[in-house]
Amino acid sequence: MKRVALFIPCFVDTVYPRVGVATLRILQKEGFEVIYPKNQTCCGQPFFNSGFVKEAKELAEKFYNDFKDYDYIVAPSASCISMVKHHYKDLLDADKFREINKKSFEICEFLHDIVKIKSLNVSFNHTIALHQSCHGLRELELATPSELNLPYQNKIENLLNLVDGLEILPLANAQECCGFGGTFSINESEVSKKMGQDKLANFKASGAEYLVGYDNSCLMHLASLEPELKTLHVIEILAGVADESF
Amino acid sequence: MRVFNDDKWLNESLNFVRHKRDLASKKLDNWEYLREVASNIKAHTITHLDSYLEEFEAKALANGIKVHWAVDAKEHNKIVESILKKHNAKKIVKSKSMLTEECELNPYLENRGYEVIDTDLGERIVQLAKQRPSHIVLPAIHLKKEQVATIFNEQNSDPTYLTNIARVRLREHFESCDAAITGVNFAVASEGAFVVCTNEGNADLGTSLANVHIAVMGIEKIIPNMQDLGVFLTLLARSATGQDITTYSSIFKKPSRGKEIHLIIVDNGRSQMLGDEKFEGALKCIRCGACMNTCPVFRRVGGHEYNYVIPGPIGSNLGSSRDIKEYGKLAFASTLCGSCTAVCPVKINLHEQLVAYRGVYKSQVKESKDRYYKLTAKILTKPRVYRSLIKLAKYMPHWLYRGVWGKGRVAPKLAKKSFKDYYESL
Q: Among residues B242, B271, B300, which one ends one of the domains?
């Protein structure tokens, strides 16, 4: 049996544990041995993106050691996966980087490309709008970025289309950044909030009940501006846990 | 940075241009292939700059173009002045050139009694408003037609009317000019010729009327041959404004009888970027401005919020390379969404360069907040310490930390049970 290491980013662990549970359950349902390496903390992205290269290197080494013994590394966060899959090239030696690069997957990407899931047997009788967060879109290519002249594909929509009763409503500028940007949300607070408000206005105009994404960091940023906002991670819907509480 | 006072309108205007660019690029089946080819040509050229520049100079001299070399902005301005002096030229019409902005040529010449008239409509508007361009392709995009009318001392703010007013007034300057200055979009090494692209024909009118044409270019404008020019002309206008091609793409090869063409080739810090694998890719830039139009930060704040002469993602990189202490902060004014990288016609990894410059900045500039980052990173390398702190935080009442993310935000509530707790309880 293939061993999957769950990489549950710090804010998912502490703020959105249900997203971790959804990831765990769906992988178990698909027949994987799923392990949560208990020493994991953070991939180091906030430090790397803030220019603290030495600190980021230490956390990348730590991540490598925590996760090196598994067949796959899977996380419900596109941005964190993009960090380890692509940006560790600047932090780890070439062999270690290649290893991490090959076996790291965002959960939806994993279900779509590796598991090649064809049915889910779940229903979600609500309307949603899909926010296509940047790193998943442009670095992991979960969907075709509108900048590129490539045939359209959208792995997230493909997966959501397996859910009964769910309707995806069009969201204007769905591929535009929500303004989170990690420490950008602190350093450039005014611009970050403005971008978030624009995103929220587009969501409101979509008429959808839920704003759904594959990155809780973006959703957390938007919810901080609009506490009544109903957000869900894609995997909560796919795993059929959207209505459960933890 | 501050949000632009009319950000909705600025955002929508630039989004509109980005959308036009999308439509234009999608009409070409081989768009992504062309980007790859263009990137390769530029990457090849900047790593063989010495031989292409020498080839270009030899051919240009043989064509009768007078070639000058300027190591920096100061030398560039002096050369321009010496040419003007020689021809006793007092009034200069200038078409768009970001290099002259970079070298601050206008104030240099004006302080020495020369009259410089910017002839690109957008440039003319910002010149009259005593501002700097807020965008490299759309210099006056931050101004609305009503503001332009005020700048022109006119009541009528109809764009066609205002354009005609500008045309009539500029015509007088064209007719009485002594010299014309233009930028350069591409310099073709195999021909010793250079190309100037405009939509208004102002470069062509100025250079046709004046007896002396001074063209200025950075060393990175060189491309090997005419076939390569085809690739770049296909990409440039589509990326910039969504047009198939600029209205005028003029190739200057030799001066007309009795006239002179001077070409100043400027380094001004560019060669410092060569040889640094992480950063030299910025020299591939063809100044289309697509990264500005797509940048969600640029669209909210406008170009004047950037303290470097070229704004937006490419400007933040070029500025950081110029002087990391002075401009390195710009590298942080990005969410790293990567749209700039995806839209770039020569495939500069703009957002990755921004991250890399952040590292350079932090290696040189110490700030008081650094210790929080370092402490947090230290905690995260020690899982036990990290876990006990998380436990403590959970007992903190929400009202105590709901504002920690800053004004106007409610910090998220920590879950009663972390995922780790759940996993261990299974």
A: B271
Quickly count: other Cβ atoms within 10 Å of residue B344's Cβ. Answer: 28
Tell which A residues from 185 to 204 touch B, by Cβ distance under 8 Å: 185-195, 198
CATH number for the domain spanning B154: value is: 3.40.50.10420
Residues in CB range of B379: below 8 A, 6 or more apart: B385, B386, B389
Test A53 with B381 for CB contact under 8 angstroms.
no
Cα–Cα distance, A12 to A22 (Å, whole number): 11
Q: Considering only residues 180 to 239 of chain B, which have any Cβ-Cβ distance to chain A shorter than 8 Å? A: none
Residue B235 within a domain? yes
Q: Between A36, A149, A189, which is nearest B26 by CB? A: A149
- How does pLDDT run across B226-285, given as a tens digit for each residue? 999 999 999 999 999 999 999 999 999 999 999 999 999 999 999 999 999 999 999 999
User: Is residue B306 very low, low, confident or very high in pLDDT (cuts 50, 70, 90)?
Assistant: very high
Do A13 and B419 lie within an 8 Å CB cutoff? Answer: yes
Q: Who's near B140: CB < 8 A, 6+ residues apart?
A: B121, B122, B123, B125, B126, B129, B133, B134, B148
Number of domains chain B contains = 3
Task: Name the residue range of residue B129's domain.
Answer: 48-271
Question: Does one domain contain both B346 and B403?
Answer: no
Do the domain assignments include residue B19?
no
A236-246: b or e for each residue (b if 16 or more CB lie within 10 Å)? bbbbbbbeeeb
Residues B112-169 pLDDT 10s = 999 999 999 999 999 999 999 999 999 999 999 999 999 999 999 999 999 999 999 9
- So what's the ipTM on this one? 0.96
Assess A127–B contact: CB distance below 8 Å, yes or no.
no
Say which residues have a Cβ less than 8 Å from residue B130's Cβ, sequence separation at least 6: none
Q: Chain B closest CA to A70's CA: distance in Å?
A: 18
Q: Which helix (H) or strand (E) holds A79?
A: helix A78-85
Say which residues have a Cβ less than 8 Å from residue B14's Cβ, sequence separation at least 6: B141, B292, B293, B298, B299
Q: Which residues lie below 8 Å from residue A105, measured CB to CB, with a gap of 6+?
A: A72, A73, A74, A75, A81, A113, A114
In Å, what is the CA distance from B81 to each residue of A120, A184, B91, B115? 74, 44, 12, 12
The answer to whether the CB of B386 falls within 8 A of the CB of A39 is no
Closest by Cβ to B297, choosing from A90, A191, A193? A191
Domain termination residue (choose one: B271, B298, B325): B271
